[in-house]
Amino acid sequence: MSSAAPALLLLAVSGAVGVLGLWQLLAGSSRSAELAARGAAGAHDGATRSVVRALDARLRRTGPGRRLAAWLAGAGVGVSPAELIGLVAASALLGWVLLSLLFARGLALVVAVAGAILIARALIERRRGKRSDAFAAQLPEIARMLSNGAAAGLSMAQAVRLASRELADPAGTELRRVVDEMRLGQTIEDALDGLRRRLPSREVSVLLTTIVIQQRAGGDTVRALSELAAALESRKDLRREVQTLLSGVVFTSYVVAGIGASTILLVNVMSPGVTRAMTSSALGIAGLTVAAALWTVAFVLIRRTTRIDI
Fold first, then answer.
1. What is the Cα–Cα distance from 155 to 161, expressed in whole angstroms?
2. What residues contact residue 99 under an 8 Å CB cut-off, 6+ apart?
3. Residue 216 and residue 273 in one domain
């Protein structure tokens, strides 16, 4: 027992470091390829990179591939859909090797694949949520800039172009994408609807709906955007206060999830091989499934208490 536990811990840490390193490698691959293309015009890409690009282009032509690309774009992740699938597959393989030390190989494979998909989704959704919150925090400034542009006699498209040059990321990046889509022939309504799909939130919907209504029906655009900016500023302060009050509950939800995973490891350390024996029988798998379901329900119920629509 004394020799198996350190070896298992060392292997788990090495696997985690390997997954993080692979994530950073794939996250920077798009930017590295772009810089290499600029510095070596006319040079051919490597065979591996060409295959990845070909697979990514084929994947983006499908409906799920387009939705996956839009999802990643909303998160601001520098990983293409094909690279994400490769990263999830590599993580599942590594997870299968690690979990095979605890569980039966068949169950370890199922858990590794499901875990890799769920963890990748959770990480990207977390990144997407942070980006959406950062964009929502800039909405009052966006509304004020659009209001000032309208007061100066600019059209809404020109005001959006001005705001894209002046604002910091993520607002500047997203508005520049809107401007690029308008240059390609899309209307401002369609371009803003794409922004709403990338960064879905109530505040974004309110601002974009106001802009679209003003574009179609006319009216006092300056006054509408000025009042909206003040309302969004108050809403941002309220959201910050609520998040501060609920931070303890959020931490508790992660503690509950951590207790469930650490309990399995502790049992296996105290009685080496017991989890493998449990997962080799249908009764043991059923017991672990019920326990995992109960821990998941507890985690979800605790997190539900932190979701307050304001």
1. 10
2. 108, 111, 112
3. no
124 lies in the same domain as 143: no
Q: Are residues 299 and 180 in the same domain?
A: no
Lowest mean pLDDT among 30-39, 51-60, 258-267, 291-300: 30-39
List, in order, residues 6 or more apart from 134 with CB less than 8 Å away.
170
Q: Are 14 and 114 contained in the same domain?
A: yes
What's the rounded Cα separation, in Å, for the pair 8 and 27? 28
Same structural domain, 119 and 40: yes
Q: Are residues 1 and 124 in the same domain?
A: yes
- What does the alpha-carbon distance between residue 103 and residue 107 come to, in Å, rounded to a whole number? 7
Domain count, the chain: 3
Q: Which of 161, 156, 257 is nearest to 208 (CA)?
A: 156
Which of 86, 101, 128 is the last residue in one of the domains? 128
Domain hosting residue 57, numbered range = 1-128
Asked if residue 53 and residue 80 are part of one domain, the reply reads: yes
End position of a domain, from candidates 204, 236, 268: 236
Q: Cα(266)–Cα(123) distance, rounded to whole angstroms?
A: 26
pLDDT above 70 (res 79): yes
Give this prediction's pTM.
0.67
Which residue intervals of the chain are DSSP H helices? Answer: 4-27, 29-39, 47-60, 63-75, 81-99, 105-137, 139-151, 156-166, 171-183, 188-198, 202-217, 221-245, 247-270, 274-278, 282-304
Q: Are 306 and 250 in contact (CB under 8 A)?
A: yes
User: Which residue matches tokens 């821990």?
Assistant: 295
pLDDT tens by residue, 130-183: 888 888 888 888 888 888 888 888 888 888 888 888 888 888 888 898 899 888
133 occurs within a structural domain? no
Q: What is the mean pLDDT of the chain?
A: 77
Q: What angle do CA 126, 254, 6 make, to 5 degrees?
A: 105
